[in-house]
Design a protein that fits this description.
Chain C: This is ABC transporter substrate-binding protein. The complex is a heterotrimer of chains A (about 290), B (about 375) and C (about 425). Chain A is mainly α. Chain A is built from eleven helices and two strands, in the order H-H-H-H-E-E-H-H-H-H-H-H-H. A two-stranded antiparallel ribbon of chain A has the order 1-2. Chain A starts with a helix and ends in a 13-residue tail after the last helix. The chains are: A mainly alpha (about 290), B mainly alpha (about 375), C alpha/beta (about 425). The interface between B and C is large, with 67 and 62 residues.
Chain lengths: ~290, ~375, ~425
């Protein structure tokens, strides 16, 4: 084993972490704010991929425009979902988990009925199909793009939550819904908007994953458990999810380097269970969050 | 008398009628496919029952019931696999293909059928006791526990796939001949196999019912409704939770054994997240606060999947998902709560003058069933 | 009513045992599927029409329906039409098992055609063997199985890589890296490939397995970059395979200097990934859509024009499935001649299927025949290179049919004979799976 390959594995770990993080971002917002465990998150990712595919295939939209467009399409789906179903279930956290699982079945099968179950393909600009070499290590351009988008989104969310009026309201609702309401904050509206925002983020993740891998009605299922674990390990806060994804992504890459991919996953699952045993509230729990 | 739904005697009579009907089936029906299929539903019924016990009565949502089921099933499959090996040919063929030249230690106890059966049930039960004990003592509960079981399930799923020489990997184990016990071959399509499953289902249901009616069961239901208060009253919440979780695991492990007896194979698909989630769906649709309701839930959903699934080919999952959403949204306590409020209305009408009304309504935390 | 509970229990238990007693030890009904006079021949089509496996398996159902239509149009089997009973296994192994029982026990079909993955085959084989039934397994698989109830029309691991590995070594260089999905078939195929690699004087630099369905190839491609092989030998399947080819290109690997030699990436896969990701890579298979012979032209044209050709391609897996219908027809005719139409059982069809030849005039891939001992197929593996339009150009074809050998890498296990696996000790063991 030489140092160069290990370094490569570490750099790759950052890329894997960014993929896990972007899958988990939307879920973090939704879970952190409303305490909703959204099992349909994977399917929202899938919808993001399909909307990019659709825009590109039928309207000929360039890929880079498909990403924000997917954000708005999936955010709208999230909005409808929240208004039509989730808002009735806020005081029943386990029931949101179950109901959203039902939603995930419906979305998956609905997409399959419309688009068929054969894989679709999103074309990315040729510039993304190349490789950046740093001499000692190399990484594909598209992974750098994902990393960049993820960093941008995290920064944007941080601004939104900590520098805007809306953010103050969201954090107020997060900490104490009733108290926030008595100060005139419409918590129903806040929940609705954060849910739509979280869904939209899943849409962005989907349009990126569609290029990295494949667009299939079942593609979401593989992300949802992973994304969940990131959120729970992180404690439902933005910083927590960043740290949790960073740690697991690096671990996955380094362990896969020393053993194999499957075994690396096993170890990560076990480590997560052990970790949560000692810190059930996650890495950075929000102090005094009451729902 | 109030709502007859909450009347214990009436409940036991319904149980008796239910099992009497199940008992008559093999006498009336001479269709080996149907018998085998119904027996498989019986296994699913046991799984839904275990979820109901653990979630409906213990308040512990377990998304990883596939662990106990899968471990039980693997144990049983290993036992059956070893039954078809003999001294001249002691190693299962798939191991030879994975370049093992001797039987691994893990497999050796399964050469003996009795030991194998005991292990198949004991290992998952013990796992539940230890895992549950550790988690509940750390006061992990609610959605967190659900997520942890999910992580644990995924861990088992991956390791079984990865350790192919010992587990058969994705292909799983396929014992080539039927289960033999005390010299008798249990043909999976025979009434015998049906009876075995029937007895276990009945036994598990009766035990679960007795538990929920005992003082122990009342405490677990109190924990479900407010764990903090019960803790302040001096009960060991973790202890109660561990026991109910372990009993549910035991039932699932037995279900796993029965299942392999019926279908003669096991694969990591039994530890797949979607399978464990469908167990929760059965219980939720049937009514998690009702043991019998959950069993019915499993029968209805699986029956519909088998018989309506092909008719509604493409839209089946759409229908199932939609139905599930509607149940969770409007009938949080499942179809059984329809019966409950129906009977409640009846009772209220009969005695419309006085205080019978107070018992009615689904929002109240409810007593056993 | 204090006493009710316990007494009720006892009575119920006693009653059920009493009712049970007469039935307890009765064997279940004697089972034998036979052909009935004046009724069509029922066969079961057990594939997934929905779910993750639907992509390859729906095509199998379609092509079999096409084949049986064609057979029926030409007079059926001995004048009797074949009626396929189509079920949906929903990509769920439990459903495979349940549907198998339904087809065998309730529909009483005379034979089953089904499965794509090894795992689903393994899930249904105990039932098939228990009822002494017959499964046509129409795709490539790893071998190392010797049952008396299956006939396979796809290539075995030993047939697949026999030409591919020497061809690649000669053309691109000695150093190779193996990548596969983490399950039995890739691992067994790689063991076979190692044998041919050693004979060709090649060198194995590394061997990696990816979880089934995973789309993260970063770590593996990193290892490949370090190892610098001359070519990659891939047994990655399904959605992962498409992710692999896409990331291969995105990570800056060049197909000219390090092509992927695959056992799975056919017309369906290249269409799904976009032809520019597939172009230049190699595939070993007995059939390609571009095979230039009149039978194949007729097959491709006829199929794509028919109501079953909606997906727009033919594929090695579909052609192998198509052949299985004709193997069944010939086997049934031989069995009927040997034991009489009314005595035909699934097992007698199988026992009479050894040596059946599907001639050039019928078989799009050219003459094949069923081995008399292990009931797999003698066929000519071919190597194709993917072109810019997603079709394959055939660059090499075996000059004669290669023998199937399910135990080629386990000579110590014995040899597969008609009646079972004959071990080195001379004992014959039935139903080895």
């Amino acid at each position: 084993m030489d140092l160069g390959s290990l370094l490569n594995a570490l750099i790759l770990g950052v890329s894997i972490a960014s993929i896990w993080l972007i899958a988990a971002l939307g879920l973090t917002i939704i879970y952190g704010t409303a305490g909703v465990i959204n099992m349909a998150h994977g399917e929202l990712i899938m919808l993001g991929a399909y909307s990019s595919y659709m825009l590109q295939f039928y309207l000929g939209l360039p890929y880079l425009l498909c990403i924000p467009a997917s954000f708005f399409i999936v955010a709208f789906v999230g909005l409808v979902l929240e208004r039509g179903l989730i808002r009735y279930l806020y005081n029943r956290p386990l029931d949101t988990l179950l109901a959203t699982y039902g939603v995930s079945l419906v979305l998956m099968q609905g997409v399959r009925l419309i688009f068929g179950s054969d894989p679709k393909y999103i074309a990315a600009p040729a510039a993304f199909s190349s490789n950046i070499s740093l001499g000692f290590a190399s990484i594909s351009t598209f992974r750098v793009v994902i990393l960049g988008v993820t960093a941008l989104l995290v920064f944007g969310l941080w601004l939104l939550f900590y520098k805007t009026r809306f953010g103050v309201q969201v954090r107020a609702v997060m900490q104490n819904k009733e108290m926030a309401a008595s100060f005139g904050i419409n918590s129903g509206r806040i929940y609705m908007l954060t849910f739509a925002l979280g869904a939209g983020l899943a849409g962005v993740a989907g349009s990126l994953f569609g290029v990295l891998a494949i667009v299939l009605p079942t593609m979401g299922a593989s992300y949802v458990v992973q994304a969940f674990l990131m959120v729970v390990v992180g404690g439902g806060s933005l910083a927590g999810s960043v740290a949790a994804s960073g740690a697991t992504g690096e671990l996955q890459s380094v362990l896969a380097f020393f053993t194999n991919d499957t075994f690396a996953r096993f170890i990560i699952f076990v480590l997560i269970v052990v970790f949560l045993r000692f810190r059930p509230q996650g890495l950075f729990a929000q102090a005094g969050a009451r729902r | 008398m109030g709502n007859i739904y909450h009347n214990k005697t009436a409940q036991w009579i319904v149980y008796a009628v239910f099992f009497a009907i199940l008992a008559v089936i093999p006498i009336k029906i001479d269709d080996s496919f149907l018998l085998n299929q119904l027996a498989t539903y019986g296994v699913y019924g046991m799984l839904a029952l275990s979820i109901s016990l653990c979630w409906g009565f213990g308040g512990i949502l377990n998304l990883g019931q596939g662990i106990a089921f899968g471990l039980g099933a693997y144990g049983m499959a290993m036992t059956m696999q070893m039954q078809s090996q003999d001294a001249s040919n002691p190693i299962p063929p798939f191991m030879l293909n994975n370049s093992l030249d001797h039987l691994p230690l893990l497999w050796q106890p399964f050469q003996n059928t009795t030991a194998g059966l005991i292990l198949s049930v004991a290992v998952p039960t013990l796992f539940c006791a230890v895992f549950g004990g550790i988690m509940f003592r750390a006061r992990v509960s609610g959605p967190f526990f659900a997520i942890m079981t999910l992580a644990m399930l995924s861990a088992f799923y991956t390791i079984i796939i990865d350790r192919q020489p010992y587990t058969g990997g994705v292909n799983g184990l396929t014992p080539p001949s039927a289960f033999q016990f005390a010299g008798v071959e249990v043909d999976p399509y025979s009434p015998t196999a049906y009876w075995v499953v029937f007895c276990f289902l009945m036994g598990a249901t009766v035990v679960a019912k007795l538990i929920t009616q005992s003082s122990f069961g009342l405490v677990t239901q109190a924990i479900r409704d407010d764990a903090e208060r019960v803790r302040f009253l001096g009960y060991s919440v973790a202890g109660y939770e561990t026991v109910i979780y372990t009993v549910a695991g035991l039932i699932a492990a037995i279900a796993g054994c029965c299942w392999v007896m019926l279908v003669q194979y096991v694969s990591p698909a039994q530890l797949d997240v979607s399978f464990s989630l469908s167990m929760v769906i059965w219980a939720a649709i049937g009514g998690r606060h009702s043991l019998l309701g959950s069993i019915f839930g499993a029968f209805i959903i699986q029956g519909a999947q088998s018989y309506l699934g092909d008719t509604f080919l493409a839209t089946w999952l759409l229908i199932l998902g939609g139905f599930f959403i509607i149940v969770v949204r409007f009938l949080p306590n499942g179809l059984a709560s329809l019966l409950e409020s129906g009977l409640g209305l009846l009772a209220a009408k009969r005695r419309s003058s006085s205080a019978a009304v107070e018992r009615n309504g689904d929002a109240n935390p409810m007593p056993a069933e | 009513m204090q006493f009710t509970r316990r007494n009720l229990l006892k009575t119920t238990a006693a009653a059920s045992v009493a009712i049970a007693a007469p039935h307890l030890w009765l064997p279940s009904e004697a089972h034998a599927a036979t052909l009935k006079k004046g009724e069509p021949i029922k066969v079961g089509l057990l594939f997934s029409l929905t779910g993750a496996l639907a992509v390859p398996e729906e095509d199998s159902t379609l092509v079999l329906q096409y084949a049986f239509d064609e057979i029926n149009k030409n007079g059926g089997v001995n004048g009797v039409p074949v009626e396929p009973v189509i079920v949906d296994a929903k990509s769920d192994f439990n459903v495979y098992s349940e549907k198998t029982k339904e087809l065998i026990l309730r529909e009483k079909v005379i034979a089953l055609f089904g499965c794509y993955t090894s795992a689903s085959r393994k899930a249904i084989l105990p039932t098939v063997m228990q009822r002494d039934h017959l499964l046509y397994y129409p795709t490539c698989y790893e071998g190392a199985e010797c049952t008396q109830n299956t006939i396979c029309t796809g290539p075995l691991a030993n047939q697949h890589s026999q030409d591919l590995i020497p061809f690649m070594v000669e053309k691109f260089g000695k150093k190779v890296f193996f990548v596969g999905s983490n399950y039995v078939w890739p691992k067994e195929s790689n063991k076979n490939a190692k044998v041919w690699l050693e004979k060709a004087g090649g060198e194995l630099l590394g061997e990696e397995y990816i979880p089934l369905g995973s789309s993260e190839f970063g770590p593996v491609l990193g290892k490949i970059r370090d190892a610098k092989p001359d070519f990659i030998f891939s047994t990655v399947v399904g959605a992962s395979d498409i992710a692999f080819h896409k990331q291969f290109k995105q990570e800056g690997f060049k197909v000219d200097s390090m092509p992927i030699a695959s056992l799975t990436t056919g017309e369906i896969e290249t269409r799904a990934m976009g032809a520019d990701f597939g172009a230049g890579h190699f595939l070993s298979a007995p059939y390609f859509q571009t095979l230039d012979n009149p039978t194949n032209q007729k097959f491709v044209e006829g199929f794509l024009k028919s109501k079953y050709g909606k997906n727009g391609t033919t594929h090695y897996n579909m052609e192998e499935t198509y052949l299985s219908a004709y193997v069944f027809k010939a086997g049934l005719e031989k069995a009927a001649a040997a034991v009489g139409v009314e005595n035909v059982t699934p097992r007698s069809i199988r026992d009479n299927s050894g040596g059946i030849r599907i001639e050039d005039a019928v078989s799009p891939e050219g003459l094949i025949w069923i081995d008399e001992n292990n009931f797999n197929t003698w066929l000519k593996p071919k190597i194709g290179q993917c072109q810019a339009d997603g079709t394959f150009k055939i660059v090499k074809a075996a000059d004669k049919q290669v023998a199937p050998d399910p135990y080629s890498i386990y000579p110590d296990a014995g040899t597969c004979t008609k009646d079972g696996l004959k071990g080195p000790d001379g004992k014959v063991r039935k139903n080895v799976i």
